[in-house]
Amino acid sequence: MMADILSNEGKQLLLGNEAITRGLIEAGVGFASTYPGTPSSEIGNNLEALADKAGMYFEFSVNEKVALEVSAAAAASGVRSFVFMKHVGLNVAADPMMTLAYSGVRGGMLILTADDPSAHSSQNEQDNRYFSQLGLLPMMEPSTPAEAKEMIRYAYEVSEKLTLPLIFRTTTRVNHARGIVTMREPVGMVPRGRFEKDTPRFVNIPAHARPNRVRLLALMEEAKAVSESSPYNFIEGSGETGIITSGVAYTYVKEFVSGASVLKLGFTNPLPERKIADFIRGKKRIIVVEELDPFLEDQVLRVCAQNGLDVPVFGKRSGHLPRAWEYNPDVIGRLSSVADVMEHPVPLAPADILLPGRPPALCAGCPHRGMYAATKKAVGGRDVIYCSDIGCYTLGIQAPFNAADYIICMGGGAGAAGGFSETTDQKPIAFLGDSTFFHSGIPPLISAKFNGHRIVMVILDNRTTAMTGHQPNPGTGRDFGGRKTEPLDIEAVVRGIGVDYLETVDPYDVKRSAEVMKAALECDGIAVVISKCPCPLELKKLKQLEAKHCRVDQSKCVRCYTCLRMIACPALVKEDGRVSVDETQCMGCGMCANVCPKRAIEVIR
């Protein structure tokens, strides 16, 4: 599929993120950057493989803030740039973004925020459309993979016309849906530029920021005119009922609502207020259909008030549509009292069929299992607080580990540990991954050193950014796009900070890891334990996983179930009181053998 993204002819069935990647190529984007995060991750995976062939520079930056900053510099030099991240990543990037709006760009720049309604793979479902209002930035929202691809080229034209970065907001069902995409000839790419100095514009000290704010407000007034004439704000259908919608919600309206006139908005900040007012006139009712917050609905109500339009508006404020979670045909069915909604041919959740739950779990052979088992053994009866983080290790919340008491954001567990150390008599243990350590785990460790906090930090170094699809990070080094860099040594970085206790362990050796964790807990200062072991799924993908599995010698097994209680690997099966190994799942890591008190489990090569 990746090779097809470079084709300039025909039609293809592409994932939304593949269509976006193709849109970047067709728009002549010369620079792209990201910190990986679902649901945007596949864009980076595609660019890692294809950017060099397409003549584009691409990088996985250390975090979203840096990703935005390097792309901003490229755009300031006249190169079309693209920075992308999941919705919570924009929180990290918001600091430079807010001032970048004042400076503006020379080459077009898109900031893709992939929102996640229903929080499929996220800690919240924040609605990032508000960032466009907060930052005074234009915003566009595609509804389908095909529209996303086509809209990208237009969005770059708008960005360059306004000399402003543009927020390109997608949602999970756009990123991860598939659709027919027509391939078009790319425009000429400009991969290199030159930065022409303009101190009043690009150096936003207070004396410059004040006039730049006025300039920005004038540009947003100009953006209103662009929005009014945008081909992505259009009307279709007819009827006394008017529906105003955007994003993926438009596809539900199109499929399940009939007999209505629909105003589909793709350019959603600033809104085309004249077009909205003209659309509302003469209608008996207006329905606003959008996921998450009443972003459009509140502005439609304002337009009605400002234009003296006495037309009832239905949506979230009226209670007809929910503010939580993504939409589906059943949700659209709630509009049946105010619109002609077709019945969904197959109920989504028949009352007589209960589907089993399938919660995410740490994989068989995941080295994090060993480190959690070692930690629990070392902790014993101590009163501790487990400060977890965002990544595979978030799943440490599950039994039997139950090792997640406080989670807020990337690097947040390490920061919170310092607060707990100063306000409680409990011992805080912060878990975070190698990629998260580089992303936002170093500052809280430095802060702990500076302020004399007494914490234990466990860096779960599985040699990749696993949760989002095995992307590289500074600890792995870079080897793509014609560039190769050496990995950063986490132990050397930590040692340079000057912690009080530092050890690196192999988490498959649970007994040794437990001894190290016990010493770390007894440290009256900052203790760091690095759990270093490659993710077996990554090794399997690279064909570097040794062929082996574990086996239970039933003549030695006394059915104490220590392996199940401590490791809880899904490859361990308990049936009729006997413990056996599912060889189709087993990675042969040997953690279960390491903890077996009777040595009843052996590794077979």
Q: Would you mind describing this structure in some detail?
A:
The mean pLDDT is 94. The chain is α/β, with parallel strands linked by helices and 605 residues long. Helix 2 (41-54) links the parallel strand 2 and strand 3 (57-60). The protein is globular. The strands form 8 sheets. The chain has a 7-stranded mixed β-sheet. Strands 9-12-10-14-15 form a 5-stranded mixed β-sheet, with helices on both faces. Helices cover 37% and strands 20% of the residues.
Overview features:
605 residues; alpha/beta; Rossmann fold; 4 domains; seven-stranded mixed beta sheet; 27 strands
Secondary structure layout plus pairing:
Layout: E1 11-15, H1 16-26, E2 31-34, H2 41-54, E3 57-60, H3 64-76, E4 81-86, H4 89-103, E5 109-115, H5 129-135, E6 139-140, H6 145-162, E7 166-171, H7 172-175, E8 178-182, H8 199-202, H9 206-229, E9 233-236, E10 241-246, H10 249-256, E11 257-258, E12 260-265, E13 267-269, H11 273-280, E14 285-289, H12 295-306, E15 313-314, H13 329-332, E16 340-341, H14 367-379, E17 384-387, H15 412-423, E18 427-433, H16 434-451, E19 455-461, E20 478-480, E21 483-485, H17 490-497, E22 501-505, H18 510-522, E23 526-532, H19 536-541, E24 549-552, H20 562-566, E25 572-575, E26 578-581, H21 591-595, E27 601-604
Parallel strand pairs: 2-3, 2-4, 4-5, 5-7, 6-7, 10-12, 10-14, 14-15, 17-18, 18-19, 19-23, 22-23
Antiparallel strand pairs: 1-8, 6-13, 9-12, 11-16, 20-21, 24-27, 25-26
